Amino acid sequence: MEMPKLEEVVLEANGWVKKYVLKYRLPDGSLFDYHCATRRGRDEFLAELERNAAASEIAMDALAAGRTAPTAAEFTPDAVCIVARTPRDTLVMQREFRYPLNSWCVAFPAGLIDPGEDALTTAARELEEETGYAVIPDTPMRALPQPGYSSTGLTDETVQIVYVDAEKAGEPHTEGNELIEVFELPIADIGEFVRTNQLPIGTRAQLVLEAFR
Mind listing the pLDDT tens digit for each residue in 4-38? Predict the structure, then answer.
């Protein structure tokens, strides 16, 4: 199937999160504007879009020819989501106030990757900062092989899920605007928790909990 052609990227709103209008020409020749959000500046965002298009065409051509699509080039994800399991067979979770929803939300600990960090380093740092739990020494840390996109219809943000073994080591040291209540969820109780939970929860957290259940 022919891909739409990206003809122009227009910055419409600047800030920590930026809004862009992507101007496409569809396969039938018509023009189509699509609005999206990213943390990237225009040049970095445009380079990413061009890189994605080239990799996508190669993968789609391989699939159409019955070949295995080549492995995508590695890149650093934007953030991590940390699934921390304790020796008591509980998962470290949190209720965090999320400003876009004006509500407390159920989630796994998560955070942005700082420059120079990899996903595992960020996972250990963010877990301790947000929850006071630390990765148990000499236990494996496992990241899923491919970062996932938060919402492909809205943003280019990618998140790597990292599984760790952890134990309480101290108190959280969050920023003043981070409002977080940490709790342990017994794996045996996940089914009842998911059935009765009334707070907003992300799709990523739902799927991880369902996998454990």
Answer: 999 999 999 999 999 999 999 999 999 999 999 99
* pTM exceeds cut of 0.85: yes
Phi, psi of 42 (to 5 degrees): -60, -45
- Contacts of 34 by beta carbon, 8 Å cutoff, 6+ apart: 21, 22, 24
Instruction: For residue 198, give the DSSP letter.
Output: -
Phi, psi dihedrals of residue 106, rounded to the nearest 5°: -85, 135
Output Rg (C-alpha) for the chain, integer angstroms: 20
* Cβ neighbours of residue 140 closer than 8 Å, sequence gap 6 or more: 165
pLDDT-based confidence at residue 73 (cuts at 50, 70, 90): low
Buried-state track 175-204, b at ≥16 Cβ within 10 A, e below 16: eeeeebebebbebeebeebbeeeeeebbeb
For 112-142, the pLDDT digits (tens) are 999 999 999 999 999 999 999 999 999 999 9
Q: Considering only CA atoms, which of 121, 52, 23, 129 is closest in space to residue 80?
A: 121
How many Å apart are CA 112 and CA 128, to the nearest integer?
14
Do 3 and 61 form a contact (C-beta atoms < 8 A)?
Answer: no
Domains of the chain as residue ranges with CATH? 5-64 (no CATH), 79-212 (3.90.79.10)
Contact (Cβ atoms closer than 8 angstroms) between residue 185 and residue 105: no
